[in-house]
Amino acid sequence: MSDASLSAPPVKASPFHELEVLWVRHWNDQLFSFGVKRPEDFRFRSGEFVMIGLPGLDGAKPVLRAYSIASPFWAEELEFFSIKVEDGPLTSRLQKIVAGDSVLMGKKPTGTLVLDALTGGERLWLIGTGTGLAPWLSVARDPETYSRFKQVIVCHTVRNVADLAYRDFFSHEIHDDPLIGDEAKAQLTYYPTVTRERFETPGRITDRIKSGDVFADLQLPIGFSPNSDRVMLCGSMAMIKETGELLESYGLKEGSNAEPGDYVLERAFVG
User: Fold this and answer.
1) What is the chain's Cα-based Rg?
2) Residue 8 lies in a domain
3) Model pTM above 0.85
4) Across residues 162-179, what is the average pLDDT?
5) Are 96 and 82 in contact (CB under 8 A)?
6) Is residue 101 part of a domain?
7) Average pLDDT, integer, range 103-130
8) Of 18, 12, 11, 110, which Cα lies nearest the Cα of 62?
9) DSSP code of residue 41
10) In what order do the strands lie in the sheet with 63-68?
């Protein structure tokens, strides 16, 4: 028998990166963020998502879910924003990670919440609910965003004030960003709304669009214009469906990577 016949079969390359957790931040008992070391060969467009997970228990298959990358394309580490679900197959375990632990990440980022899927316009609306804020953390730190649009509006709707993760970041910390700080200070507006507690801008973003309050608050013409407004949507299925219908009623058309349009949503998260 030859040596060749005794050699082990080639090891199949893993479809995942195994990455070190660099830090974890718990915003409250419902939300947390974490950062991982970025692989040298990993490239993505701001706004894309990737599969994140942990090895399966007792030899089972890995448990993975789609997560928007909350870092801009140029960042040296990758950040993610997650909910905590007590009995969730993944987040029940993921919420317990600490610095030094490892997580799995897919090697192929993808998604439609990217600037390439939008045609040109004057004003970019980034509308999200809950952890649907994550891709806006990426898009809002991309220099191309400010070169393509004169105004960028980040809308974040949550149930309770304590759920407004990254509120300080969008309110003032982003102004100190060495790459886009000056542009963000001049062009970015942060517009949070809260549905279950008293707040200066209460209610769902869809209700504030219908009433015209969001436009009045921002001193903008009532409604969306196909000529000037471009919109990205991420978050609850109900918000995306309702806002999409509102945008269509104003004449905006959905876009994609293959055919850019006036607004985009991430279908991977809405079924």
Assistant:
1) 20
2) no
3) yes
4) 97
5) no
6) yes
7) 97
8) 18
9) T
10) 63-68, 49-54, 102-106, 16-26, 31-37, 77-83
Across 203-215, average pLDDT = 98
Mean pLDDT for 19-38 is 97
Same domain, 58 and 126: no
DSSP 8: P
**Residue 213 pLDDT exceeds 80:** yes
- Both tokens of 35, joined, read 């950062």
By residue range, what is the domain housing residue 65? 16-106
* Centroid of chain to Cα 53: 17
φ, ψ of residue 113 in degrees (nearest 5): -85, 60
Residue 90 is part of a domain; what is its CATH number? 2.40.30.10
Assess whether 41 and 136 both reside in one domain. no
Q: Tell me, what amino acid is at 57?
A: L
Unique residue bearing structure tokens 């600490």: 98
Residue 270: its pLDDT value, please?
A: 44
Written as six digits, the tokens of 6 are 């005794």
For 61-105, the pLDDT digits (tens) are 999 999 999 999 999 999 999 999 999 999 999 999 999 999 999
pLDDT at 90 (0 to 100): 94
Q: Can you tell me the distance from the alpha carbon of 23 to that of 32, in angstroms, rounded to the nearest whole number?
A: 11
Residues 122 and 102 reside in one and the same domain: no
Same domain, 102 and 121: no
Q: Measured between alpha carbons, how far apart are the two ends of the chain, in Å?
A: 54
- 37's enclosing H/E stretch is strand 31-37
Whether residue 251 is found in the same domain as residue 119: yes
Q: According to the model, what pLDDT value does residue 266 have?
A: 86
Q: Compute the half-sphere exposure of residue 35: CA atoms within 13 Å on the CB side of its CA.
A: 11
Cα 12 versus chain centre, distance: 32
